[in-house]
Write a structure and sequence with these properties.
The chain is of the alpha/beta class. It contains ten helices and ten strands. Helix 2 crosses helix 3 and helix 3 runs parallel beside helix 4. The protein binds ligand PBG. Ligand PBG binds next to loops.
Length: 325
């Protein structure tokens, strides 16, 4: 008995056929745009290590947010860059802190037309740059930090955030913040848990973007890139603590983790294409070493194929050929 020739190429023979059988389409609403707002500046400041990204003034932030929402992005994630920092990151929870002020302005501008998200961490606001408060031996104090996160979350929800993003990797942070939000009456504020967040070299450019004061590293709280199993443990705990959404971060180098989490999670799975992933493609493109548009699209499709429902990316509001409107 003879078999017909198997010709997988038949399905690739015209653009229309390829389009028809494509398993994955990426739309603007699948993307969330991270934005930086900086206190005390009068014009946007370019982030040198992230070409095309700026630290916004309040006014330029409003314009960038409105444009992105008009384009159809799925949401906005805000980070604040304060002009003064202290040991405990007090500005994170202050109503007149830069991030909370920006949330208030954007919520007034945009209402429920987008999903307004806030980075619920204190590293941008601490003088030492760590994501938690330090004990007298200079170590990050997990349980003392939980109270800080709760104050920050309540301040962000009061300012108008629809969602707080817990990016600090403290144990028990989801339960603490959920409980705090609920008792302050914010039962509808979403909690995004950065569940599987790795201590990655790819955060380098971001630390420029927020003028990070960090010396050393975050290896006592962020995960070891060598480890796979503990991601599921983190996700499992966060879901049990009440996370509405779980996140894998970074995305590009951790596609196996995205797939693991997508296969097991009962809540939406998001992934963060971080600053280093952005800057590496931009830098190679600027040198003429890679085709920017196709590299950008492919990097995002890869993350989607691995199982992410939504992707945080600094390209969310850029023209991306191949993206659905
Ligand atoms: C911490 C935080 C970081 C990023 C987002 N939230 C930095 C870190 O963990 O050091 C990195 C994002 C990026 O690199 O694009 N609040």
């Amino acid at each position: 008995m003879s078999f017909p020739h198997h010709r997988p190429r038949r399905l690739r023979s015209t653009a229309a056929i390829r389009d028809l059988v494509s398993e994955r389409r990426l739309a603007r609403r699948d993307l969330v745009l991270p934005l930086f707002v900086r206190e005390g500046i009068t014009a946007p400041v370019p982030v040198e290590s992230m070409p095309g990204v700026v630290q916004h003034t309040m006014e330029s932030l409003r314009a960038a947010a409105a444009t992105a929402v008009d384009l159809g992005v799925g949401g906005l994630m805000l980070f604040g860059v304060p002009s003064a920092r202290d040991e405990c990151g007090r500005a994170g929870a202050a109503a007149d802190g830069i991030l909370n002020q920006a949330l208030q302005v954007l919520r007034e501008d945009l209402g429920d037309a987008t999903v307004l998200m806030a980075d619920c961490c204190i590293d941008e606001f601490t003088s030492h740059g760590h994501c938690g408060v330090l004990n007298d031996r200079g170590q990050v104090d997990n349980d003392a930090t939980l109270a800080k996160y709760t104050q920050v979350a309540i301040a962000q929800a009061s300012a108008g955030a629809h969602l707080v993003g817990l990016s600090g990797m403290m144990d028990g942070q989801v339960a603490a913040v959920r409980q705090g939000l609920d008792s302050a009456g914010f039962v509808d504020t979403l909690v995004l848990a950065y569940s599987a967040k790795y201590a990655s070299a790819s955060y380098g450019p971001f630390r420029d973007a927020v003028d990070s004061q960090l010396e050393g590293d975050r290896r006592t709280y962020q995960q070891d890139p060598a480890n796979r199993r503990e991601s599921w443990r983190e996700v499992d705990l966060d879901i049990r603590e009440g996370a509405d959404v779980v996140m894998v971060k970074p995305a590009g180098g951790f596609l196996d983790i995205v797939r693991d989490v997508a296969d097991r999670s009962v809540v939406p799975v998001w992934a963060y294409q971080v600053s280093g992933e952005y800057s590496m493609i931009e830098a190679a493109a600027a040198n003429g070493w890679i085709d920017r548009d196709s590299a950008v699209l492919e990097s995002l499709v890869n993350i989607k194929r691995a199982g992410a429902d939504t992707i945080f990316t600094y390209w969310a509001a850029d023209p991306i050929p191949g993206l659905l409107a």
